[in-house]
Amino acid sequence: MTAFQGNIQPIKLNTSVQQALGKHLLSCYPHEACGVLLGTAAAGGMRIDRYLPLRNVAPDPLHTFVPDPKEWIRALYLEPAPVGLFHSHPHTAPWPSSADIQGLPSLGPEFQIYLIGSPGPKSGEPMCLHGFQILRQQKPSGQLIYKLLQSPVMLC
Ligand SMILES: [Zn+2]
């Protein structure tokens, strides 16, 4: 497991995954899009090679996301399990909101990557994508603390 102050490792994205994220973001607009990322830990960083879009069933999908529970459970049982979560911020910059941080404990330890995308500044421009590593630190009390550490996203 990554140390709390571990070295920053890039998140490597397959170009087809990047396109799939951008497409899903736009097809859900103005609602938030969400889905899981499949990939493997590779030397020098995590490599994402598949994206599985999930339906957002949040009561307020303009500002929040809740993956469809059935699709979510099915995704968790994939072999190998998803390594990351993606969602979009259709109206704001792709930085984690306080609700995003509060949602981290609901993700199992297999989730190591957190991606947030926002539409490009002008229509037709590529989305703005920020990548983060999910860090978990256990306090002496046993309580787990969650933190997102920004990591460069590299296309490959
Ligand atoms: Zn968010």
From TrEMBL:
Protein name, as recorded: JAB1/MPN/MOV34 metalloenzyme domain-containing protein
Domain (JAB1/MPN/MOV34 metalloenzyme) ranges: 10-137
Protein keywords: Hydrolase, Metal-binding, Metalloprotease, Protease, Zinc
What the entry lists under InterPro entries is as follows: JAB_dom_prok, JAMM/MPN+_dom, VirAsm_ModProt
Give me the segments passing through the membrane: none
* SUPFAM superfamilies in the record: JAB1/MPN domain
Native species: Paenibacillus helianthi
